[in-house]
Design a protein that fits this description.
alpha/beta, 12 strands, Rossmann fold, six-stranded parallel beta sheet, globular
């Protein structure tokens, strides 16, 4: 039987070795940078999932602090562009479509034009994965300086050769927001604020207020938002545990339950609704910015380790997240108002409702 994966890897290694010899950048050090000349910056973070993307927003903050007057543009996948719209640290968003069927000649021309807009610095934020596509986009930008991590070097290559500047990668346990900022720290861009960020407009916040009032919120009662879903099945806390926690917290503290779940998680939502003995409203919304605005009104959010966890954290919603296979030391949002509970055997089902309730009550009061 033909091992197509091995064949693919063989030709990919041949390709990257050729690219290293043909396109490899001259290595520079941070002392070689003329920081006064950096007026246009391109950030490339186009290959990661929603949570990974939001975890990188502290790096945007660090770059803005270092270069307050620069025009900062970001390349993002189409499913993450919504969370960076209106971001206070970003001037422009370039959308990179995931599927070939979404591209046409006009979109390709627009992409090339936007990439060749005269950037002085391009930053590739590669932390848990390394994308050849991202590196090629960085190369196409033609920036005077290209910065990325030394981490995840392509097999058979001497270094991450698309970069002039390769930031050191520190082994060991480290939060992903820290990992992203570590890349730009190499050139002196830093921040003490590692919180994730989505910039909501006043209109978006007011829309959510009105929507919640229409659903029955009186404006005084604290909202307990709940999202029982996760794209990875191993990251899901059993729905009946969410039910137990919600019934106890709402009865004890006079909270209004507000429920949400993903587009493909209707069965989870149905199970959650069926088990609740408390009044509840449903705040499902496929528009991620509207969901973010609704979550910004919550007094507490219960969820799993999934993308919406970071959406809630990025708008400042206090939360308790259940973790299983993934390490909260690396993936929990930074901040005391964000709590993580992890199973003793790293299975979500090991976490008991009493543990979540105890952490929730510390955040409520």
């Amino acid at each position: 039987m033909i091992n197509w994966h091995s064949i693919e890897q063989f030709f990919k290694q041949k390709l990257v070795r050729f690219l290293e010899s043909a396109l490899g950048k001259r290595e520079l050090t941070p002392t070689d940078i003329d920081h006064n000349s950096i007026k246009k910056i391109l950030i490339i973070r186009q290959h990661d999932q929603l949570g990974d993307f939001i975890l990188s927003t502290p790096a945007f903050r660090a770059l803005r602090a270092k270069y307050p007057d620069a025009q900062i543009t970001i390349v993002a996948r189409h499913y993450t562009t919504a969370v960076v719209l209106n971001n206070r640290y970003i001037n422009k968003v370039i959308t990179f479509y995931e599927h070939g069927r979404d591209w046409n000649l006009q979109r390709l021309r627009t992409l090339l034009s936007e990439l060749r807009a005269g950037y002085d610095l391009t930053v590739v934020l590669n932390t848990v994965s390394h994308s050849l596509t991202s590196d090629l986009l960085a190369w196409l930008s033609g920036a005077r300086y290209i910065l990325g991590s030394e981490h995840l070097r392509f097999s058979g290559t001497r270094r991450n050769f698309f970069y002039h500047l390769t930031a050191p990668y520190y082994e060991g346990e480290c939060n992903q927001s820290e990992r992203n900022v570590d890349i730009v720290r190499y050139i002196g861009a830093d921040t003490d604020d590692l919180s994730e960020h989505i910039t909501l407009t006043q209109a978006e916040y007011e829309w959510a207020t009105g929507q919640l009032h229409e659903l029955g919120w009186d404006g005084r009662q604290k909202i307990l938002a709940i999202h029982p879903g996760a794209g990875k099945l191993g990251n899901r806390w059993p729905v009946h545990y969410f039910v137990q926690a919600a019934n106890i917290l709402t009865a004890k503290h006079n909270l209004l339950a507000a429920l949400a779940w993903g587009p493909a998680e209707a069965d989870l939502g149905k199970e959650l609704c069926a088990g609740l003995s408390c009044p509840y409203i449903i705040i499902n919304n496929k528009d991620i910015r509207k969901l973010a605005a609704l979550l910004a009104h919550s007094g507490l959010f219960l969820c799993n380790d999934t993308g919406v966890l970071h959406v809630a954290a990025a708008v400042g919603a206090p939360l308790v997240a259940v973790f299983g296979p993934t390490n909260p030391a690396e993936w929990k949002p930074v901040g005391e108002q964000f709590a993580a509970v992890r199973g003793s055997t790293h299975n979500c089902s090991d976490v008991q409702p009493e543990q979540v309730i105890a952490r929730a009550e510390k955040l409520l009061f």
